[in-house]
């Protein structure tokens, strides 16, 4: 059974025609199913887990990168469930990486049902799909318990990557490792789809990373938290344990996927 999770921004009337086209196409292809709509009175975990309880085997994120990233922390906890994607609107870089075209064209990808099994990252118990980034001047990383990364003064940003393509460095989400890129200017996941702003100074690989804040230079006894941005939508504070979770997410992909 298919469950289609509509993000709350799709309530805007400008998306009404697109949604009607999507619903008609899924019906034509025989992949229609139950629809759940996010709004201020419900939450994504509640809607998704209720759908799985009632038999959903494919949960489809209808929305953008944020919609997908939120589902990524839920679906892997149910091994029999597969993630699908119908990208609508702006900020759909993850769909591009998965080889999924926008709107009703994505319905054909769902119907073809080409499934890949991807690694995920995990930070303090929460799954993520693409990357985590932080200000390089505020953190220190310990990788696999063997060595530390203390960025040089010129470094601007740390990127811990599971899926994507950063600074001409393609990231394979099926290799069982996380790649840490130390770069010389601020950026993020979306930099791949824009004019490059960064130079990748160093590249490290690891399965487990401990990330902590550097001491406060003004007061060595004072604690200083650093912000860690997860999948470009959610921020948590240090300290954090980051690790790879191999072969954790079943996802429907297109033939033009970028890995």
Descriptive report:
- This protein has two domains: 2-113, Probable inorganic polyphosphate/atp-NAD kinase, domain 1 (Rossmann fold, 3-Layer(aba) Sandwich), CATH 3.40.50.10330; 126-246, Tumour Suppressor Smad4 (Sandwich).
- The protein has helices spanning 16-29, 44-53, 65-72, 93-97, 105-112, and strands at residues 2-6, 34-37, 58-63, 82-87, 115-123, 126-128, 131-135, 139-143, 147-149, 157-161, 164-166, 169-171, 178-183, 200-206, 208-213, 227-230, 234-237, 240-252.
- With 259 residues, it is α+β, with helices and mostly antiparallel strands.
- It has a six-stranded antiparallel sheet with strand order 6-5-18-15-8-9, covered by helices on one side. Strands 14-13-10-7-16-17 form a six-stranded antiparallel sheet, with no helix packed on it.
- The protein is built from five helices and 18 strands.
- The mean pLDDT is 91.
- The chain starts with a strand and ends in a 7-residue tail after the last strand.
- Helix 1 packs parallel to helix 5 (105-112).
Q: What descriptors fit this protein?
A:
259 residues; 5 helices; Tumour Suppressor Smad4; six-stranded antiparallel beta sheet
CATH architecture of the largest domain: Sandwich
Distance between the termini: 28 Å
Strand content: 35-45%
Helix content: 10-25%
Which consecutive residue ranges, at least 5 long each, have pLDDT under 50? none
User: CATH fold name of the largest domain, please?
Assistant: Tumour Suppressor Smad4
């Amino acid at each position: 059974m298919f469950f289609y999770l509509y993000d709350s921004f799709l309530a805007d009337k400008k998306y009404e025609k697109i949604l009607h086209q999507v619903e008609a196409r899924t019906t034509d292809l025989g992949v229609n199913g139950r629809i759940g709509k996010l709004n201020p009175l419900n939450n994504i975990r509640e809607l998704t887990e209720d759908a799985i309880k009632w038999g959903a085997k494919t949960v489809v994120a209808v929305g953008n990168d944020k919609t997908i990233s939120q589902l990524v922390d839920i679906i892997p906890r149910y091994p029999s469930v597969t993630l699908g994607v119908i990208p609508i609107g702006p900020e759909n870089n993850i769909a591009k990486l998965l080889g999924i075209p926008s709107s009703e064209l994505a319905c054909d990808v769902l119907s073809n049902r080409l499934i890949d099994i991807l690694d995920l990252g995990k930070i303090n118990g929460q799954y993520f799909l693409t990357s985590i980034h932080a200000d390089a001047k505020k953190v220190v990383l310990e990788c696999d318990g063997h060595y530390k990364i203390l960025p040089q003064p010129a470094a601007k940003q740390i990127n811990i990557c599971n899926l994507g393509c950063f600074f001409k460095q393609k990231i394979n989400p099926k290799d069982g490792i996380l790649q840490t890129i130390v770069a010389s200017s601020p950026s993020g996941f979306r930099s791949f789809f824009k004019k490059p702003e960064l130079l990748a100074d160093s590249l490290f690989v690891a399965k487990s990373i401990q990330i902590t804040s550097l001491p406060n230079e003004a007061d060595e006894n004072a604690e200083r938290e650093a912000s860690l941005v997860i999948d470009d939508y959610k921020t948590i504070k240090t300290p954090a344990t980051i690790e790879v979770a191999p072969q954790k997410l079943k996802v429907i992909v297109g033939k033009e996927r970028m890995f």
